[in-house]
Amino acid sequence: MTEARRLSLILVVALLALAAIFAGPYVLDTYSVNVLTRSLLYAAVALTVDLLWGFLGILTFGQSVFFACGAYAAGLVSTHMDFSTSNAFLALGLGVGGALLVAAIVGWLAFWHGASALYASVITLVLPIVATQLLYSGGTFTGSSSGLSGFMSFDLSMEAWFWLSGSFLVGVTTLAYIFVKSDAGRLLVAVRENEQRCKYLGLDTSRLKILVYLACAAIAAIAGYIYAGYAMVVAPELAGFVFGTELVIWTALGGRGTLLGPVFGALIVDYESAQLAGDYPFVWQLIIGTLFVLVIVAFPRGLLPVVFDVPRKLLGLLRPRPTTPATSVTLSTLDPADAQGVEPGEGAALMVAGVVKRFGSLTVLEGIDFEARAGELVSLVGPNGAGKTTLMRCIADGAERTSGSIHVNGYDIGRKPPEACVALGVGRKFQMANVFETLTVAQCLQIARVRHDRPSVWRRAQDLQLPQAAMHVLATTGLDKQLSTPAHLLSHGMKQALELSMVLALEPRVLLLDEPTAGLTKTERMQIGAILIDLAKKQGLCVLLVEHDLDFVREISSRVIVLHQGRIVLDGSVEEVVASELVKQVYAGSGHAGIDHETAPSPSQEMPA
Ligand SMILES: Nc1ncnc2c1ncn2[C@@H]1O[C@H](COP(=O)(O)OP(=O)(O)OP(=O)(O)O)[C@@H](O)[C@H]1O
Q1: Domains and CATH numbers, the chain
Q2: TM segments (predicted)?
Q3: Does ipTM surpass 0.90 in this model?
């Protein structure tokens, strides 16, 4: 389906939903219109919980606070100032502005570099408790536990409030749907799935989380503002933990990560709760709670995926499944004139000086000094625990080392986080293939290009330009024929190749590879070896390779650095290292055989490590 057709289809569905909203008051009784007006607004807030939790992976209990910001702004302005159109807009501005301010502070606290997802959830858990206490202690200003009531509002009929709330929900849902299906929206799933890989692809994930959090806070505040206008009463419970948790429950029931699921979850549960509360005032919460437990146990993904799965399965039985899904992305090679890699500064491509790394009292790296130039392929070898991976980490993340300095392309990495090191020209491939498992090969590569090609917030790109080095890896391994294949279906070797292409898509000048051939077949190893030689010799990259396979090291390296107990014991040519008595002792001392030619492992064996 073309982009224009896909977007037209979304708009047609949105128009149908608006038509249904318009028809609502004509087919529903007054009670239902009244209750559903509230439910429509709650559904908009549940949608923001889904964006944060279902898509971005942030479980939040605090969206109620932003809803209350909008509601209380309307209530406070109308109560303490005269009601007028200008004051009403002032209240809207204060509500949204207040919500944005609170979200910025909470976002900064919850998503700073290094904060865990649990930490974020705990902060959003505390937020409603603090907000409710503040409202309770506000005296006559906030109305304390009674809240504010009887204030003036726009003179709209109940039907008009229903239409306004419904149109707001349809508008927000449509925009959110277009966004999550766009190239920029895909980043949310990438962050949820593998935040570490995102950072090492140069993405500032903390910033992305804060931006989405701010947008969700603003949506919730507008919903709260409309709610106060229609209900003409606000109470501390609107900011409370119970409402915040209800939003999470509706999202889980409907199906998180589906957008429409939480919307329908909120609409149905809130409407039915109102009915049950009237009919069974003492047991309705027990009934809702029991239903929730039953649904979650039977359908952990929520109800909407089940509703969609049934027809899909039936259609799947009727229609033969295509063996290879059609790809919608066309690959092409980036013109070298359009390359956006960092301009090299003074000195060698990589300069490591006096680097020390300690974990508490354990010194893992001690006084590491070396330089590597562009076009060099340097292998880093040494027994297990020598500190090889730790050194790679120190080069790719300025916060890792205890002391010493590291310059990449002539620029001091200082204490910069991984994404900033990527901007200086570092590309890191991990020991275990580190890709986005649920995304396709093409989507993984698109995310790797986000630093250079700004993604659209409403469209999906149909073509993808990659640097020649990345295209070379794709063509050599045949990955260019599997662009529509989800990464989790690839073989181990193909995943390694995909990760390497993703890293090369960054246009790095210093390439860090941690055992790129681990677990590969001999043919795959030879392929990777040829690619690495090409990258260093023809593309002029500085390649630093951690490797245990001596034959592989001997075939491709221009230089070998031997690390032992956190120190460099030798830095020289392959021949020098192989002939070194010291190196033999290092390996003998580690309980392994030496690395001379006589005792070197056969091609199928790995170098002792
Ligand atoms: N987070 C950590 N906390 C404490 N010690 C650590 C940590 N990470 C690594 N180490 C220790 O640092 C030392 C070096 O580990 P590192 O993984 O860098 O070695 P390596 O040379 O890459 O080994 P291998 O070849 O087995 O991958 C080891 O003794 C390891 O136990």
Answers
A1: 3-312 (1.10.3470), 342-425+509-524+537-609 (3.40.50.300), 436-507 (no CATH)
A2: 39-58, 65-83, 89-111, 118-136, 160-180, 210-235, 247-269, 281-299
A3: yes
